[in-house]
Design goal:
310 residues; alpha/beta; Rossmann fold; 3 domains; 16 helices
Length: 310
């Protein structure tokens, strides 16, 4: 009953505030259920930019809300839980990347969207897990030296796909949720579900990726399952994806590769936090505020991604 009551209040507040609620695929099911749009971080930021709402409640982690603010600087962007961060984004600092740029001025810096706004200001272009390979290869064909930040696993996967070409350099960062998945865990799941297709996010380690039936972004994994004739899937990404997987594919079965596929910061946001964010009350929420220089410089990297993704 409490969930229904909070949901009703949220729907009323959205109308009053001319607000939209965006939720990442890894959010709690009840938060996804109340959202106007569910998606990955950059997909949601593009929706925020195109939407006529004046207030954006971004149910995700800090760098995602910052990306929405960069693309929609004149809109109010609110993160329901200000302490919802990302260990991968935290693995690279502005100071360390600036030092690298000064020491290596001939490098193209390609930054994963999973980075802070201030780090994006040092990047030549941003990428997502769905367009990283295409954009990295664009610069490789130009003969550019590339530093990819901060996810080592996606970079290693790209290097694996391009075995006959010079490799790209990469930062020593990772998403612990995906990085900690093991081949042994997959073997165990295959013992129980031998006919299940294995779908993995490219943030997983290469030895595991080599055993996948499909590798792709969260959205690409969802699309693959929809189109597949298979009825069983072993899923190697954060367990929040099950909400959309089961909703869109009620006759198919899903098995999480590991019981550890839970991102604590993604799960911080509760329904009451969404309501409080709309009311702008309490001490958990944060309105995202960025200075004009950060918006402009980080925006260049994001817009370059859009250009190269066409």
């Amino acid at each position: 009953m409490e969930i229904l009551e909070i949901t009703k209040r949220i729907q009323e507040l959205k109308k009053q505030k001319n607000a939209i609620i965006l939720a990442h695929y890894y959010q709690n099911p009840e938060v996804q259920a109340v959202a106007d749009y569910i998606g990955d971080s950059y997909q949601l930021s593009k929706i925020a930019k195109a939407n006529t709402a004046s207030v954006i409640i971004f149910c995700g982690v800090h760098f995602m809300a910052e990306t929405a603010k960069i693309l929609s600087p004149h809109k109010k962007v609110i993160l329901p839980v200000k302490n919802a961060g990302c260990s991968m984004a935290d693995s690279i600092s502005y100071e360390n990347l600036l030092k690298f740029k000064h020491e290596n001025p001939n490098y193209i810096i390609i930054g994963y969207v999973n980075t802070s706004a201030i780090v994006k200001t040092l990047c030549d272009v941003c990428v997502t897990s769905s367009n990283a390979i295409k954009i990295i290869n664009h610069y490789k064909k130009m003969g550019k030296k590339i530093m990819y930040v901060p996810d080592q696993n996606l970079a290693k996967y790209v290097n694996y796909l391009n075995q006959n070409n010079p490799t790209i350099d990469f930062w020593d960062g990772e998403c612990y949720i995906h990085h900690n998945l093991t081949v042994d865990e997959l073997a165990r799941q295959k013992t129980f579900h031998p006919n299940a297709k294995v779908i993995l996010h490219p943030e997983a380690r290469l030895d595991l990726l080599q055993k996948a039936d499909f590798i792709g972004s969260t959205k690409e994994m969802l699309d693959y399952v929809k189109k597949s004739d298979a009825t069983e899937f072993i899923v190697g990404t954060e367990e929040g994806i099950r909400y959309c997987l089961e909703k869109d594919n009620p006759t198919k079965k899903f098995y999480m590769l590991s019981p550890k596929l839970v991102c604590g910061t993604m799960k911080m946001t509760k329904l009451i936090d969404v309501e409080n964010a709309l009311l702008e009350q309490g001490n958990r929420y944060e309105e995202i505020k960025l200075d004009q220089e950060t918006i402009e410089l980080a925006g260049k990297a994001l817009n370059k991604m859009l250009e190269l993704s066409e």
